[in-house]
Specification:
Blueprint: E1 5-11, H1 18-34, E2 39-41, H2 53-59, H3 67-79, E3 82-91, E4 100-107, E5 113-118, E6 124-126, E7 132-134, E8 146-150, E9 153-157, H4 166-174, E10 177-181, H5 188-206, E11 209-212, E12 216-218, E13 224-226, E14 230-232, E15 238-241, E16 248-254, H6 257-265
Parallel strand pairs: 1-2, 2-3, 9-10, 10-11
Antiparallel strand pairs: 1-16, 3-4, 4-5, 6-7, 8-9, 11-14, 12-13, 14-15
Helix pairs in contact: 1-3
């Protein structure tokens, strides 16, 4: 792994259709590449954010037919960068299941899809604020973890609610991840309480860099998301962050040598033991 990897996290406020989503994301991704980033990451729901289950399912198309995904693949090739589409909401490959997939896609500098990961954990909750979320009604969860190969080391792929499942992050680190992406569209109450706390914990537990590009602000569909995109180093310190929820670009340089140093100082990945459940 090489040291000094320039990365950029693109914070978005994605519209409720793919055409406008591409128009929203493109100038920020161009800004990220112009600033020197070789790896650019966008949030969950980069291609569409629509709260209405019926409206969203009516607008969702296959990965190959999605104009936002196609446009972003072309943009990665034009700019010569690795681009992580944090997630795109696309039709599932299971014709018997009408629900969509919440899919993270790593695009190479030639525009090809290097890796794809379908969000494992779906968010079903009733919040004290009165907000009700039933992601399982419209999103079909995935069934496998993914570590993507990059020129700089393994990139573990997760999406949003996955951050609450430490065993997934440990499995990614054990499988060779030096970096883990957590693209998200966090609600404001959970963002205020848990966003930075959990991301820093996942970095410390795995000895990985954790990169979390976020949706932020008041969206056209009525939801509000937390923003505050950030990058956490393997020792747990925040090395770059946005203090707001406005669309913006966050730059950071990853010293990937810190991964080996953190794991040598606390070799916890090698010390876990099997045990009988209580």
């Amino acid at each position: 792994m090489a040291e000094g990897l320039p990365v950029a996290l693109v914070q978005l406020r994605t519209p409720d259709n793919q055409k406008e989503a591409l128009a929203h994301a493109e100038p920020l991704i161009r800004e990220a590449a112009a600033g020197g980033a070789r790896l650019v990451l966008t949030p969950e729901g980069t291609n569409i954010l629509e709260r209405s289950r019926e409206t969203r399912l009516a607008r969702v198309v296959s990965q190959d037919d999605d104009i936002c995904i196609s446009g972003l693949r072309g943009l990665a090739a034009e700019l010569g960068v690795h681009l992580l589409i944090g997630s795109a909401i696309v039709k599932s490959a299971d014709a018997a299941d009408p629900r969509a997939a919440n899919r993270s896609l790593l695009i190479g500098p030639n525009g090809a899809v290097i890796a794809a990961y379908d969000k494992l954990h779906v968010f079903d909750v009733d919040l004290p604020t009165g907000e009700r979320h039933r992601e399982s009604e419209s999103i079909r969860p995935g069934d496998r973890a993914v570590v993507a190969t990059t020129p700089w080391g393994g990139l573990g792929l997760t999406v949003c609610y996955d951050v609450r499942f430490a065993h997934l992050f440990r499995a990614l680190a054990k499988a060779g991840a030096a970096m883990i992406s957590v693209p998200a569209a966090f609600t404001v109450p959970t963002g205020q309480a848990h966003w930075e706390l959990m991301l820093r914990a996942r970095a410390v537990e795995t000895g990985c860099f954790v990169m979390a590009p976020a949706q932020g602000g008041a969206h056209a569909d009525g939801r509000s998301t937390w923003g505050r995109s950030l990058v956490v180093a393997p020792w747990g310190e925040v090395v770059a962050s946005l203090p707001h929820d406005e669309p913006a670009v966050l730059h950071a340089v990853l010293d990937l040598g810190q991964v080996a140093r953190a794991r040598a100082a606390i070799p916890q990945l090698d010390h876990a033991r099997d045990f009988a459940a209580p």
